[in-house]
Amino acid sequence: MKKTALVVLSKGFEDVEAVAPIDVLTRAGVDVTIASTVSGPVAAAYGSTLVPHMTVDKVTNLFDAIVIPGGMVNAEALAVNRTVIDLIKKHHAAGKLVAAICASSALVLGEAAGLLKGKRATGSPGSEDRLTACGAIVTGVHVTVDGNIITGMGPGAALPFGLQIAEYLGGRELPDDLAARWRIAR
Fold first, then answer.
1. Of the residues 19, 99, 102, 109, which is catalytic?
2. How far apart are CA 146 and CA 121, in angstroms?
3. What pLDDT, in 10s, does the model give residues 69-108?
4. Which one of 14, 89, 149, 161 has the largest count of C-beta atoms within 10 Å of its C-beta?
5. Which CATH superfamily does the domain covering 4-181 fall into?
6. Is the pTM of this model over 0.90?
């Protein structure tokens, strides 16, 4: 059965932190759905625009993974959106993969959803104090996996972050092949 991933974003998401995981997961054969807090095209922090498949309030099913891109404006908006936080908590409680990168690691998974207590995690440089305040064990590496939670450091980690999600969902072979073709150290 084909794996599924929900990518959740709002205005001001970090361009590469959304696009790179979407691209990697699609290449890995994952059925990716993009949901936003608003209807219509969503502007990223640095000029990209994505057209979501739906708004978050229309999400009724669980996916194999829920992915939260960073970008401070995006992370702040998602952290106060009850629908988004409820979706994250439902996925986590059901044992589904929950992944966040950059500012969303601390603000969304840590502070708003409360999922990082006692978990190894990474996030945007400068967010170490916020991660620690949430009870996370800060690793300071590009991508960290702890159980069904994957966190990424920032834009430079977007491809390895996407590859790690793909590996979690479908095994190591395809992500390793993509990494080798793209010359990405894993």
1. 102
2. 7
3. 999 999 999 999 999 999 999 999 999 999 999 999 999 9
4. 161
5. Class I glutamine amidotransferase (GATase) domain (3.40.50.880)
6. yes
